[in-house]
Amino acid sequence: MIEFVNQAALYAAWLVGKIWRPAVEILILTVIIYYVFSFVRGTRGFSILTGFLVVLLTLALVSNFFELNVLKFLLGTFSAFLAIAVVVIFQPELRRILAQLGNMQMFQTSHAQRETIEVIVQTAERLAEVRIGALIALEQSIQLQESVESRIPIDCLATPEMLETIFFPNNAIHDGGVIIKGDRIAFAACIFPLTRRQDLNKTLGTRHRAAIGLTEETDAVVVVISEESGHISYSYKGQLVRHVSIEELRAFLTTVLVKPVKTRTWVEWLKRLSAIRARQQRPVVIQRPEPVVEKVENPAPVRFEPVAKTEAGP
Q1: Distance CA 233, CA 25 (A)
Q2: Per residue in 234-257, pLDDT tens?
Q3: 3-state SS assignment for residue 125
Q4: Is the pLDDT of residue 109 over 70?
Q5: Which of 12, 66, 144, 310 is deepest in the core (most CB within 10 A)?
């Protein structure tokens, strides 16, 4: 009995020694494939990746089942160019992953960040009241001038009055967006990249699509004021939230921009990947309900009775 137990223990140790390496490899590959699909899901490269994998698996199964040696040789030869094809097709997604991997916080004090937030909030409130469209991008760790097609250097202090002047309809540089670095307006009349997602509402305007497109490629926060309705929206990491109030805008900007500088560990980075996947499962555009304004039908007219004048005494 003791000999049987010893043999079983030796066999179990041998089996564990043979299995743990393949198990670790399978686990690592599973995690990589899982997060890659999480990143590319909903993008223009997802359909390309799905079609490519279907064709590749079909050809591999057919060649192995019917023993087509020439087809096997061609598949093995073209597999060497697979890495180059992945880099070319998924360049935006890879750029986003690498940018988030090496994300560093801006060296800016909390007081300066709060002042910039108040400038953006006041500007959004003023422009929304008069229904003047605006597109304001707040730069963080990734430089935005590399992602825009054209821009005009401004380099002035960010104030509500200056932003109102830029977006005034009769201004020559009111078209396009504004890039804010720290507490200064760096560029105006910027043409942001439009999102290429196919699952968006067709009625979504150019400003909102540009906000989603810029936040898909960078870590910027973009604030949008609609010219048609005067509604305020913000976009961050490819997700657009519409019809927000001034308080909600201030709270969101404070949460994203005002945070302590700290070194990011690999565990925290993996947690961010999980949070990004959870965010991608939510709709790209979140529309808050519009405030309900009660209207009184056929209000009674208000009549003002003349006041009789009283004669002054002697």
Answers
A1: 44
A2: 999 889 999 999 999 999 999 998
A3: helix
A4: no
A5: 144
8 A C-beta contact, residue 246 and residue 206: no
Integer Cα distance of 86 and 139 in angstroms: 29
Pick the CATH number of 110-260+280-287 from 2.30.30.100, 3.40.50.2000, 3.40.1700.10, 3.20.20.70: 3.40.1700.10
Tell me, yes or no, if the pTM score tops 0.90.
Answer: no
Residues 190 and 174: their CA atoms lie apart, in Å, by 10
Instruction: Look at residue 293 and give its three-state secondary structure.
Output: coil
**For helices 44-65 and 69-78, angle between their N-to-C axes, nearest 10 degrees:** 150
The answer to whether the beta carbons of residues 220 and 96 sit under 8 Å apart is no
Q: What is the 3-state secondary structure (H, E, C) of 202-270?
A: CCCCHHHHHHHHHHHHCCCEEEEECCCCCCEEEEECCEEEEEECHHHHHHHHHHHHCCCCCCCCHHHHH
Rounded Cα–Cα distance for residues 210 and 177 (Å): 9
How far apart, in whole angstroms, are the C-alpha atoms of residue 30 and residue 155?
48
- What is the arrangement of strands in the sheet containing 285-287, beginning at the earlier edge strand? 152-157, 184-190, 177-181, 134-138, 221-225, 232-236, 239-244, 285-287
The 3 state secondary structure assigned to 224-240 is EECCCCCCEEEEECCEE
- Which residue is it, tokens 């105006």? 188
